[in-house]
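2024-03-11 09:14:02 INFO worker-7 job=invfold-0412 stage=load source=structure_tokens
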């Protein structure tokens, strides 16, 4: 089993090229259909008067020229040898549009929010967090620093037995099978549901053809910082983990560990909620 439909965010940001190139390489490897999705930035729920005002603002900034970004996507997909791809443009803001389209895909690929990117200043909150919670699909978030030649050669799987982590494992299975090594990392104290922490997951993954090992770490004060430290120690080039959310009040805010990873990530993170 491999990914058959992949959605990648297409925009004008400095990180768009790396994002689209990786998505195209993965789609070519899997024989997947690749969807490049660009958005106007105007919510589909906006009232008519608001929509016209925002449209004029986007036009003045030049953000309306999505044909250029989508043409770049087409060229990258063709160069990577993607056999089936399509471009999409929607009058919507990116997070909501990607979450909606992601429900009809196996994987959504976005970039970490870069606060130094002028494009990010006009977004209604961080795109990765909203797509993770709104799509019900695995989301691969690429960092805007420390680019890696490969992704998924050595994977760190953050495991706590939760439903979210279980969904992340399922969503990452094509990458886990291709990895040279998967390091299952869990912290004590841990309420194990099997004989020993991580054993049941390691046996399950072994039956899936995944090469893995288990690392049981002391319980840290800051789980997010500890996961990032483990990433460096293990020389991992991908983190797979469950994403945890707090109740939606006035805006969507993810739990502490997830928020830390999305803010400080140095390697790609595949998340599921």
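2024-03-11 09:14:09 INFO worker-7 stage=emit residues=273
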């Amino acid at each position: 089993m491999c990914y058959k439909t992949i959605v990648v965010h297409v925009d004008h940001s400095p990180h768009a090229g790396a994002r689209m190139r990786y998505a195209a390489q993965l789609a070519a490897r899997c024989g997947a259909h690749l969807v490049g999705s660009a958005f106007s930035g105007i919510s589909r729920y906006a009232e008519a008067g608001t929509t016209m005002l925002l449209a004029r603002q986007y036009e003045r900034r030049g953000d309306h020229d999505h044909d250029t970004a989508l043409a770049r996507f087409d060229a990258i997909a063709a160069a990577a040898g993607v056999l089936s791809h399509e471009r999409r443009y929607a009058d919507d803001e990116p997070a909501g549009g990607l979450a909606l389209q992601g429900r009809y895909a196996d994987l959504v690929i976005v970039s970490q929010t870069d606060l130094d990117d002028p494009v990010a200043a006009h977004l209604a909150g961080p795109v990765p967090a909203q797509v993770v919670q709104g799509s019900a699909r695995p989301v691969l978030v690429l960092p805007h620093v420390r680019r890696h030649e490969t992704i998924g050669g050595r994977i760190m799987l953050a495991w706590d037995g939760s439903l979210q982590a279980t969904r992340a494992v399922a969503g990452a299975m094509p990458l886990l099978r291709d990895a040279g090594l998967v390091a299952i990392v869990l912290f004590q104290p841990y309420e194990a549901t099997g004989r020993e922490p991580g054993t049941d997951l390691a046996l399950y993954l072994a039956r899936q053809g995944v090469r893995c090992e288990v690392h049981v770490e002391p319980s840290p004060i800051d789980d997010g910082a500890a996961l990032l430290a483990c990433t460096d120690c293990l020389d991992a080039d991908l983190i797979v983990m469950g994403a945890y959310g707090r109740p939606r009040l006035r805006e969507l805010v993810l739990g502490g560990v997830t928020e830390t990873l999305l803010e400080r990530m140095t390697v790609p993170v595949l998340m599921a909620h």
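2024-03-11 09:14:09 INFO worker-7 stage=report msg="The longest helix spans residues 163-178."
2024-03-11 09:14:10 INFO worker-7 job finished
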